[in-house]
Write a sequence for this structure.
């Protein structure tokens, strides 16, 4: 089944926030901010801006009826700055005008009097000054102190990995209007409708039942709208309440880039110990997470870094420590992988450095240490399958790793200007919110008397195809054609208390809830059908219901009408909570994940050693889809995740100056992958895998894991650099931009 949005997306008919028909009298909103990253505010001069043509009002924290607070995990983030600003781009207020142009003109007339304060952008400096977002955490397994003594090789190093801008095609935005009775309607481009509803209730001092948040779809979220869609929606709601008019806000791309947080940069120190036969006995790592100026989701992201710090490997003795460091950058936030990729990049770097020191190929160490059935992860969960090894072995065989290694060796011996590199990249990603409480969802299904079906869940469609999968769940369950089913928007009046669509679990959680609703409805319909068809057993298929003998049948419409006439309920609301999972933070042990997703990629790159530019010839992936319920949607996720991962580690460079000002502030100076930089060939193979009972229809979650195949891009390029300049001392400092590659190629060496 093709993605149900495909046709409307390519013909431009899909409705995004900015496409909503504006109601007469709509005002446009534009946030304003100070030019400094850290300062005490003395005065904000608004008088001149207020007199500008087309301006209706300018709101600040003084206009907030409830609390000036939008923090999610901790209440540490004001909607509008009051006495202090903590990062460049922190909103200080909102301009409301007849159109965006008037607002922009007015924004130029706002001036500030402020005292600058010291700016910290480096997480290690913040940690040394005890500026932490949350208490630091440590996971341990075994005993590293004892284990070092048995290691023949001990290697230490430092790893830096930079942030990443989300570049969702649709920038942040929201549209709110007042309803009767002081209640309010909010259309929001958010992954977390309930988080928006809750924040509005706090800021406007309204009960949650007066706030309706509706999400039709997003033009991409990638985690950037898990928490950071909230402030813009709250601003429009506040403005609608204040003016009594509909208010719309769509951030300009450059405002979006400047004002919103990104993937967290990390700086980490590692120490890894191996035996002569390449068994990793011990690993110690300390992560410094650059959280930015407030908590946002940083503590949760830190937790996933802790959990994924050994990636797909079993290491018997481990100490993992992580600090969430408070700096004067925009609060960094969720981004596909949610801290996992940063942890995984460090262990991969440690393995590569160990391999270079010992004089073996990194894949020999990787393969030797893959997690096996019965192995314990540092967070206490025991692995109950062999998928990590299976995916490696299948990739090695099908993609002929020996041939790749041989061919690249030969090429590098015979070429000087061009060098090739490869990397094998195994992945292991836990599925579930690490916060057990969040793993629940609900669904609401109505069957109308004409046989058409409407489904509501809390799942937000952001391009990942969750609506297509939900449609499949309902139509499969009822045995009716997909055309009879409609997936409605995520709306807080229909589905309450939702978790964000995130953690790759949107289809699993909402799909499972939906399946329960459909099963319950089907049970009632089966009774009706059984009496009409005079048979205990009835079969739902092809829009028909037949008896066991297959002799008598009725249509779906006839059955529905019959049930309606017999006063059988044709509506169902259901709840699902992932069983089994748990985590005890006081012990730092538990079973946080319903299951894991595995896979292995083989990446090949060619480096132009004159220019420092590189090109990926092929990426071949053996991926654990379980029993994929939609191969084309799932392949789209693997391709998109891979390319986004490669972009993060190669081209995309977020740059702040020492004053905390974003220099990479537009698509002209922040380079994302395009059609020319994607690999020439992407091969996606399905691992023979049983799937998981916790995955919807055994079709494993696929949203985030493939991003981590992109980690291999860094190491493939590094290998090619080493082939050209074996003497070069190379740091682990991602992204590996062509500029950095060029410097490494010619350090202590000429052409
Ligand atoms: N795919 C598209 N096209 N657009 C997106 O914004 N977000 C990713 C992933 N794939 C995203 C995407 C992220 S960060 C997550 S957590 C999952 O989709 C969320 O959707 P799911 O839980 O339904 O997989
Ligand atoms: N969000 C969250 C996430 O709140 N908890 C998680 O564990 C998570 N994991 C991935 C992406 N978003
Ligand atoms: Mo995805 S980072 O869980 O939104």
């Amino acid at each position: 089944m093709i993605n149900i949005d495909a046709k409307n997306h390519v013909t431009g008919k899909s409705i995004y926030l900015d496409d909503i028909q504006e109601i007469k009298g709509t005002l446009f909103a534009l946030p304003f901010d100070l030019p400094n990253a850290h300062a005490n505010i003395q005065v904000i001069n608004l008088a001149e801006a207020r007199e500008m043509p087309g301006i209706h009002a300018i709101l600040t924290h003084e206009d907030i009826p409830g609390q000036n607070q939008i923090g999610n995990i901790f209440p540490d983030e004001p909607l509008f700055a009051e006495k202090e600003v903590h990062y460049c781009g922190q909103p200080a207020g909102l301009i409301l005008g007849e159109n965006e142009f008037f607002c922009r003109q007015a924004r130029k007339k706002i001036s500030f009097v402020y005292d600058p304060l010291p700016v910290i952008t480096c997480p290690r400096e913040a940690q040394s000054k005890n500026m932490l977002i949350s208490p630091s955490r440590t996971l341990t397994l075994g005993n590293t102190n004892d284990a070092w003594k048995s290691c023949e090789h001990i290697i230490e190093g430092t790893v830096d990995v930079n942030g990443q801008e989300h570049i969702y095609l649709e920038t942040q935005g929201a549209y709110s209007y007042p309803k009767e009775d002081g209640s309010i309607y909010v259309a929001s481009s958010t992954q977390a409708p309930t988080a928006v509803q809750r924040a509005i209730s706090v800021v406007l001092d309204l009960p949650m039942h007066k706030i309706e948040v509706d999400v039709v779809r997003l033009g991409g979220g990638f985690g950037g709208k898990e928490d950071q869609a909230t402030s813009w929606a709250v601003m429009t709601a506040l403005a609608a309440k204040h003016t009594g008019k509909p208010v719309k806000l769509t951030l300009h791309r450059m405002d979006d880039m400047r004002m919103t947080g990104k993937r967290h940069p990390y700086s980490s120190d590692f120490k890894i110990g191996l035996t002569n036969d390449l068994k990793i006995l011990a690993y110690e790592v300390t992560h410094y997470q650059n959280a930015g100026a407030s908590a946002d989701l940083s503590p949760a992201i830190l937790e996933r870094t802790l959990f994924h710090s050994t990636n797909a490997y079993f290491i018997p003795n481990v100490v993992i420590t992580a600090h969430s460091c408070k700096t004067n950058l925009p609060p960094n936030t969720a981004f596909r992988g949610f801290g996992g990729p940063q942890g995984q990049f460090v262990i991969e770097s440690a393995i590569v450095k160990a391999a270079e020191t010992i004089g073996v190929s990194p894949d020999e160490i990787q393969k030797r240490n893959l997690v096996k059935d019965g192995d314990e992860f540092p967070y206490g969960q025991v692995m109950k399958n062999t998928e990590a090894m299976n995916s490696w072995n299948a990739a090695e065989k099908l993609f002929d790793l020996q041939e790749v290694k041989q061919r690249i060796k030969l090429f590098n011996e015979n070429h000087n200007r061009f060098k090739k590199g490869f990397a094998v990249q195994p992945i292991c990603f836990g599925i579930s919110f690490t916060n057990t409480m969040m793993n629940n969802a609900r669904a609401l299904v109505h069957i109308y008397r004409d046989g058409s079906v409407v489904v509501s869940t809390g799942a937000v469609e952001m391009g990942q195809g969750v609506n297509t999968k939900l449609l499949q769940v309902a139509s499969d369950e009822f045995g009716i054609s997909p055309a009879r089913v409609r997936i409605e928007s995520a709306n807080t009046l229909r589905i309450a208390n939702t978790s964000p669509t995130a953690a790759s679990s949107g289809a699993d959680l909402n799909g499972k809830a939906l399946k329960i609703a459909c099963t319950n409805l089907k049970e009632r319909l089966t009774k009706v059908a059984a009496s009409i068809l005079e048979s205990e057993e009835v079969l739902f298929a092809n829009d028909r219901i037949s008896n066991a003998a297959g002799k008598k049948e009725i249509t779906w419409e006839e059955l529905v009408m019959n049930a309606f006439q017999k006063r059988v309920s044709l509506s169902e609301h259901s709840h699902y909570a992932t069983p089994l999972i748990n985590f005890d933070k006081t012990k730092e042990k538990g079973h946080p994940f319903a299951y894991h997703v595995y896979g292995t990629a083989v990446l090949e790159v060619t480096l132009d050693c004159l220019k420092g530019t590189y090109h990926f010839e092929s990426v071949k992936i053996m991926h654990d889809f379980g029993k994929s319920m939609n191969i084309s949607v799932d392949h789209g996720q693997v391709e998109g995740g891979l390319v986004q991962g490669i972009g993060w580690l190669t081209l995309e460079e977020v740059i702040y100056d020492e004053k905390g000002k974003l220099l990479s502030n537009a698509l002209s100076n922040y380079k994302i992958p395009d059609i020319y930089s994607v690999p020439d060939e992407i091969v996606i193979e399905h691992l023979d895998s049983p799937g998981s009972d916790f995955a919807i229809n055994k079709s494993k979650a696929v949203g985030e894991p493939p991003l981590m195949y992109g980690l291999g891009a860094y190491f493939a390029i590094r290998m090619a650099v080493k082939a050209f300049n074996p003497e070069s001392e190379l740091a682990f400092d991602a992204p590996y931009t062509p500029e950095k590659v060029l410097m490494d190629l010619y350090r202590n060496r000429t052409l």
